[in-house]
Write a structure and sequence with these properties.
- This protein has 125 residues and is of the alpha+beta class.
- It has one domain: Immunoglobulins (Immunoglobulin-like), CATH 2.60.40.10.
- Helix content is 17%, strand content 44%.
- The chain has 1 helix and 9 strands, in the order H-E-E-E-E-E-E-E-E-E.
- The strands form 2 sheets. Strands 3, 4, 5, 7, 8 and 9 form a 6-stranded antiparallel sheet that branches.
- It is elongated.
Length: 125
């Protein structure tokens, strides 16, 4: 009887944890820019989706308040439930210009946004 009670209790706890994770908003671990040229840059976000399908995108602007930000296309990802990475491409940039960017991750449980990052494009030729 004790084993049955222990098993039922264990299943309840596991179910409760799974439900809590599935209703948790995504979390963003970090973002960074890479392969920055005079007119393009790559951007990456690492995030956890807690087992829910996610949509990811970036916004970027020359204004530190993100005013007038451009937005990359929103990309859908299947649920994985572990640390994920999404790579985006920021196009139409001006040479020798400082840009500010942030990532967004949306699941059925909510949306998370990263801190604002920065990079400077290479000088023009």
């Amino acid at each position: 009887m004790r084993r049955l009670a222990f098993l039922v209790c264990g299943l309840f706890v596991a179910s409760s944890i799974a439900t809590a994770l599935a209703t948790s908003r995504p979390t963003i671990k970090r973002t960074w820019a890479w392969n920055v040229t005079g007119t393009t840059a790559g951007a990456t976000v690492e995030y956890t989706d807690f087992g829910l399908s996610a949509h990811t995108w970036f916004e970027y602007s020359t204004n530190s308040t993100m005013a007038g930000a451009k937005r990359t296309p929103e990309i859908a990802h299947l649920a994985v439930g572990v640390l994920n990475a999404f790579h985006g491409r920021l196009d139409g940039l001006q040479p020798a210009t400082t840009y500010y960017f942030r990532a967004y991750v949306r699941t059925a449980a909510g949306t998370a946004s990263s801190a604002i990052g920065t990079f400077t494009t290479a000088p023009g030729r």
